[in-house]
């Protein structure tokens, strides 16, 4: 009589940056919470030594995942000294190191019945999986709009819309991205595309990561059908098995409620959160405060920082700001190094969010119903900010500007002049997001399909 097959083994492999680790951990926990009663999954989360140390220091993952005995962390090097701060400048170095070592890591963690869920920017894991006969599903921490923009780079080059020939072309309209014709400008493309050479190495880097997506067994995106449906339709023409399972933060809480567990916020931070801002917010009137955060990588310096700050102060609004700058002080509002963002956005005192337009922040703001003023920094944040303003109508786009007069005017638009219009649109997106993550909703059904397809992928691989 043959022995029963071991359960499927899922390896989660994020890119080693705050937003990527955070969203991948949410996906891992969401999948574990959502398993059908007849299925057990063993899970390995590959984390760099530096990030894992920070995660244990600053989050509650050790206690949270202790209740899941089939879950384990696997730590690896990112090629940099542990004590060195991880900044934007090191991202490419870490990528190149992981590219060199990924095959050995995959061989080490792969057992019969393994499926790899790889970060969408670690495209080399597709080849590593092929070498070991391991199915690979890609997880993108960016939205469908940004994914499709990246995917269409070769089309833009072929049509002569890239490269961008100088700053005078930044307002030129992009016409050859299907589903987005005439709605993006050159300035809405990622800044690394602002190069004169179509063979530039950074432009090629951005193209390569997304171009390989159709080779994977599936594509997971932290979005929901009602938010980006038309764009998803275009992606489906190139990539099979697309699983839209977001918003991950709202979906997690929905699954917890379905199991009669207490709903909670999920702390996956690599930075220590300062919760004192919540006590300060408790004393403020409803919708009176602007929340300011530029994420874990972007750092405003010098003139840009001061222009932003004076614009905020001149707007006369109360401010809760997440700023890492010793030069900034204020006599109204609250400044912290790192805030519990989901809880801040959910607080009734928050009326608007000045954001760098990272996709996690965008989704968290959408699920909280908070209108955004978008000031993108790099990567997918530029198309995200345009999507928020032009496609969704839940925010204003302030890219490429650092003048205090413009900041003041747009904050006042966000909080006063255009407040009702933006708030109405934001409330509608909250409704759609909630419908997506309840039982029977699109994201709920898609996650169940993902889990079932992983079961099928791993049958016969054991």
Automatic annotation (TrEMBL):
<dbReference type="InterPro" id="IPR002213">
    <property type="entry name" value="UDP_glucos_trans"/>
</dbReference>
<dbReference type="GO" id="GO:0080044">
    <property type="term" value="F:quercetin 7-O-glucosyltransferase activity"/>
</dbReference>
<keyword id="KW-0328">Glycosyltransferase</keyword>
<keyword id="KW-0808">Transferase</keyword>
<dbReference type="GO" id="GO:0080043">
    <property type="term" value="F:quercetin 3-O-glucosyltransferase activity"/>
</dbReference>
<dbReference type="InterPro" id="IPR035595">
    <property type="entry name" value="UDP_glycos_trans_CS"/>
</dbReference>
<dbReference type="Pfam" id="PF00201">
    <property type="entry name" value="UDPGT"/>
</dbReference>
<protein>
    <recommendedName>
        <fullName>Glycosyltransferase</fullName>
        <ecNumber>2.4.1.-</ecNumber>
    </recommendedName>
</protein>
<comment type="similarity">
    <text>Belongs to the UDP-glycosyltransferase family.</text>
</comment>
